[in-house]
Predict the structure.
Amino acid sequence: MQRVLFLLCIAGVIYTSYLGIRDTHGIQDIQRDSIDVSVIYENEVQIYTLEPYATMDELLERIDINESMDLSKLNRSKILAHRDVITISKYKETPLISINSATLEELMELNGVGPSLAQQIIDYRENIRSFQDLEDLKNVKGFGDKKFDGVKDFICL
């Protein structure tokens, strides 16, 4: 009886795998001919239609950029996805601190970031990966939403 049950289980696994290989309907749903990306600047939203796997740099080529736009927070090599929302802030006189290249001392200039947290930011970008979005900073241990909200206007990639 146990052998029969075992063989039925094996047959079920093989049949399920076979169905999974044949079912490409889910894959077709994911593929798109174009993606829509929303850009917010000064409380105005504009939607741009781009090719799949377009980069931030390709999006910026389509935007009418003016001198007051601060593009330093944007990762130009980031691959955009359908329904991404990109917020472009106004340029500020205060220089921003790059979380991908700042020294320990520069990171400690941020409100609420001491030597330990600054070192964790450096360790994260060197040992795990460089920051792709500003919100990736929340992946650093000890960096939550509240702390991020306090520094997001003073950092860039």
